[in-house]
Design brief:
Number of helices: 13
Number of strands: 26
Radius of gyration: 24 Å
Largest sheet: 5 strands, parallel
Shape: globular
Distance between the termini: 66 Å
Structural class: alpha/beta
């Protein structure tokens, strides 16, 4: 087998791998890109972007129903799922059609298939063997194994996004981002929805008081969230249905009948097929072990970013983009020294309504600072009521000594956008007084920030 030599081999075509490959090619380097699925990556094809089409639709129908009998007249407002699927494909199909060509136009050589290390500087893909002193691993994540009898009967988020119709009864396993976002969508589209979470609460990265508000609101909209519920088995039922058996610590097992079971219990780095040991690439359950330059601690030829990198940072697209920026700077530097500048990383679950967070939790802040906590349920406030989606609230944590914001936690209409104001203020050290002295356009959700401080 002959070996093709490149200046860079990039494995994957998501946000980080695309950035690294294209910028390297633009600098005149010879680049190869390997993709095992459709070119474009998870975020564009099976993640962030198509998901937002669905959650936007759920949010729209939720607000519309909130306005019924007030100023909206209708015999029945509902989502046309077939047309929603068609609309979603307007965003994903062009990526599939044009992504590979966008690499090739830059002179990048593209390969289809599973990549695996042969040795620290050699990659095999199909019948090809590629060699480079610089290899970038950006293969993203995949669903965590559902290790219960019948676990293979549950579908994953990829398949949810391609459903031709929404079944009547749905069970979501896990209470993280994926389950809670898609459960909100399914409930607004008329399904009977049950979420089973084995821990004491759902959406653990977010403030528990605000999560409780979300769960209460979801219950009023047809979502049943059950915690401390460990799934024990999934089995076939009658007429194409499924039986889900789950248990509690304090009582006997229970069973549920469902037309569809969705596995949303988290994702892990997609490293299983790469044969990293042959490449002398140290890794663990949380990804490839890297130094502060985003370089493998055991193989200096290998760089990584995003879901594949064990950095302790949230597995979010903005994080992957920042790490890719660092990789581009360091790949060919004689003395690499660029390090990620994450600032404060905001997190958002695009539930209905969205819930958001940046900075410290209340527990973390109170353990390390002299803190004042501003917390309010704003579900009945004017700005929330105007949206006809009566679920809103905030918790803002301020250091009494410095007047700096330590953490901000939001739920409600526009929480996904408003949280960015707090991230900006925290990154650049603005005080609560600085923000309160700023005039915001009114009436807007952003102008509510002053009242939170």
């Amino acid at each position: 087998m002959s070996t093709n030599r490149f200046d860079l081999i990039a494995i994957g075509t998501g946000p980080s791998a695309s950035t690294v490959a294209k910028k390297t090619a633009d600098d005149g380097k010879r680049v190869a890109v390997i993709e095992s699925r459709g070119f474009g990556g998870t975020c564009a094809l099976r993640g962030c972007n198509p998901k937002k089409v669905y959650t936007n639709a759920a949010d729209l129908i939720d607000r519309t129903r909130g306005g019924l009998d007030k100023f909206i007249e209708s015999d029945g407002v509902r989502v046309n799922w077939a047309k929603l699927l068609e609309f979603k494909r307007e965003f994903t199909e062009p990526v599939l059609e044009h992504s590979e060509a966008s690499f090739q136009k830059r002179g990048i050589t593209t390969f289809h298939g599973e990549a695996s290390f042969v040795d620290p500087t050699t990659i095999r893909v199909g019948e090809h063997q590629l060699s480079s002193d610089r290899i970038f691993v950006g293969v993203g994540g995949h669903p965590r194994s559902l290790d219960v009898p019948g676990g293979e009967l549950a579908i994953h988020s990829d398949e949810f996004l391609e459903l031709e119709s929404i079944p009547q009864r749905m069970v979501f396993i896990g209470g993280g981002y994926i389950s809670m976002e898609f459960a909100c969508v399914a409930a607004r589209c008329g399904a009977e929805v049950i979420v089973l979470e084995r821990g004491d609460g759902v959406l653990s990265p977010f403030d528990p008081d605000l999560v409780k508000q979300l769960v209460r609101y979801g219950k009023s909209r047809g979502m049943d969230v059950r915690t401390n519920a460990e799934v024990a088995e999934i089995s076939p039922g009658d007429a194409g249905s499924f039986v889900v058996r789950y248990g509690h610590a304090d009582r006997n097992d229970e069973t549920l009948q469902a037309d569809l079971v969705v596995h949303g219990a988290g994702r892990v780095p997609n490293l299983g097929s790469l044969n990293l040991k042959a490449g002398n690439v140290a890794f663990g359950d949380d990804g490839i072990k890297v130094d502060s330059l985003m370089r493998s601690v055991s193989n200096p030829s290998v760089f990584t970013a995003g879901d594949c990198a064990d950095t302790g940072k949230p597995r979010l697209t903005p994080v992957a983009n920042e790490e890719a920026r660092v990789v581009v700077k360091n790949l060919f530097a004689e003395h690499p020294q660029e390090r990620p500048d994450y600032g404060q990383v905001p997190k958002v679950a695009f539930t209905v309504p969205p819930i958001a967070s940046v900075g410290m939790s209340q527990h973390q802040a109170e353990a390390s600072h002299n803190v004042v906590v501003h917390h309010q349920d704003t579900s009945s406030s004017g700005s929330v009521r105007k949206t006809h989606q009566p679920c809103g609230g905030y918790k803002v944590l301020i250091d009494k000594d410095s007047d700096r914001i330590l953490g901000a936690h939001l739920i409600g209409p526009a929480a996904d956008e408003t949280i960015n104001l707090f991230a900006l203020a925290m990154k650049f050290g603005l005080t609560a007084t600085d923000i309160k002295s700023t005039l915001f356009a009114f009436p807007t959700h952003a102008s509510d920030v002053r009242q939170m401080l």
